[in-house]
């Protein structure tokens, strides 16, 4: 049985001081390269470039995907040879192959391949490896697994072309350590991707489906803050009441995490029930929501705008709204005029359910766009919110005649720069 190589730190003490220092530097640089981001594939490509400059003539990175193997990258220190490298892609699975790569992925541990093996037409993976070694001019290859929790996630292959330059025990130990660190980085990135996907699906499940309001021109979007999970407390809603009017709502629950998203879901469901059953005007619904929120939930502070839209067949569309400490809705007309609907403002929910709240009414001009949004669209750290509202009005005026989907997307592109906060928008276009 092959003897396990000593740890690189222990082996390095037996080397010349300058050689030991160089190998420890390589470990440190590799750790930085692997920890420099959550894009595991790019981190592994950086590792390959780093290894090629210090340890091998070429480096190959293979990752296990499903029943097969994907060749992520092949890096060579010879630029001309790099132009002739095989394209990356999927390789046959390792289950029945006799190739050294397959044995490593099945758990054999680090393996050294001396000379170019003969291809076997019945073994597709072995044939692929033979073609790789021929293209790289390999005389010696060292294959180490990227293994985490006894599972091989892939392998690193270090290639040397000089016949008299085999990998000694210390270099094999160093390569094995690099494989272990690469495996940890790949595993962490996959776990993060899974968490991100789960959070994204949760957020989508908490936001409303607007297909039931197909008779209205509505456009909505939720964009999570970039430095946090893809979930947060910003929310929007739109639903029809028994009398045929439509409720439009937007709000922000304190927090930018999974707990905030759960509280947001509770709040949205309570708002739907109260609005649908009570028959109150927006201010009355907001007072009820404030009272129920403080009595039955752990939600602390919430900003929100609640709008009721009526669409009579023989007159202008009208809105009635109230505002609980939220940025004011924006009305943009086709001629470029814009107006912030600053009336009806009262304190945030969660302070005192007995506070007075007012409902304000307005007729909507034909072709106008009503925009509800959260503060992440207009606020920037260290800047007065007035400047953000001015930017919003300027861009909305320039886009007011565009189709509603273009209006929404362009507005987000122009106003979201270095995004530190979640953003939710809900836009309505009057026919």
UniProtKB/TrEMBL annotation:
Hydrolase among keywords: yes
Q: Domain GAF: where?
A: 12-196
| Every PPM-type phosphatase domain range | 213-430
Q: Which UniProt keywords apply?
A: Hydrolase
Query: Can you say what this protein is called?
Result: GAF domain-containing protein
Please provide an example of a Pfam family that matches this protein in its UniProt record: SpoIIE
- Annotated coiled-coil positions are none
Q: Does the keyword Chaperone apply?
A: no
For this protein, the record's InterPro entries field holds:
Bact_Sigma-Reg, GAF, GAF-like_dom_sf, PPM-type-like_dom_sf, PPM-type_phosphatase-like_dom
């Amino acid at each position: 049985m092959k003897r396990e190589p000593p740890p690189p730190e222990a082996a390095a003490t037996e080397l010349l001081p300058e050689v030991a220092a160089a190998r420890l530097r390589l470990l440190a640089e590799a750790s930085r390269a692997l920890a420099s981001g959550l894009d595991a594939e790019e981190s592994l490509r950086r590792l390959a470039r780093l290894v090629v400059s210090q340890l091998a003539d070429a480096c190959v990175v293979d990752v296990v995907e499903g029943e097969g193997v994907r060749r992520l990258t092949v890096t060579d220190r010879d630029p001309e040879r790099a132009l002739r490298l095989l394209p990356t892609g999927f390789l046959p699975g390792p289950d029945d192959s006799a190739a050294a790569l397959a044995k490593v992925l099945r758990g054999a541990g680090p393996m050294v391949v001396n000379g170019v093996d003969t291809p076997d037409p019945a073994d597709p993976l072995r044939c692929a490896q033979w073609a790789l070694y021929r293209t790289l001019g390999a005389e010696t290859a060292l294959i180490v697994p990227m293994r985490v929790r006894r599972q091989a996630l892939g392998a690193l292959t270090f290639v040397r072309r000089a016949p008299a330059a085999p990998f000694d025990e210390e270099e094999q130990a160093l390569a094995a350590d690099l494989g272990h660190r690469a495996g940890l980085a790949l595993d962490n990135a996959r776990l993060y991707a899974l968490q991100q996907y789960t959070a994204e699906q949760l957020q989508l499940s908490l936001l409303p489906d607007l297909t039931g309001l197909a008779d209205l021109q509505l456009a909505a979007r939720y964009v999570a803050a970039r430095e946090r999970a893809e979930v947060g407390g910003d929310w929007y809603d739109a639903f029809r009441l028994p009398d045929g009017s439509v409720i439009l709502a937007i709000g922000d629950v304190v927090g930018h995490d999974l707990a905030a998203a759960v509280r947001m879901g509770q709040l949205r469901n309570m708002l739907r029930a109260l609005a649908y059953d009570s028959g109150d005007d927006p201010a009355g619904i907001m007072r009820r929501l404030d009272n129920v929120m403080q009595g039955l939930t752990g939600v602390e502070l919430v900003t929100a705008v609640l709008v009721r839209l009526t669409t009579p067949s023989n007159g202008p569309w009208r809105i009635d709204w109230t505002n609980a400490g939220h940025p004011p809705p924006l009305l943009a007309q086709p001629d470029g005029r814009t107006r912030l609907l600053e009336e009806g403002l009262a304190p945030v929910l969660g302070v005192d359910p007995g506070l007075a709240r007012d409902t304000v009414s307005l007729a909507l001009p034909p072709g106008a766009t009503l925009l509800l949004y959260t503060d992440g669209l207009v606020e920037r750290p260290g800047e007065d919110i007035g400047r953000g509202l001015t930017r919003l009005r300027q861009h909305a005026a320039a886009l007011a005649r565009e189709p509603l989907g273009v209006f929404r997307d362009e507005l987000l592109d122009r106003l979201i720069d270095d995004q530190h906060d979640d953003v939710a928008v809900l836009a309505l276009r009057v026919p």
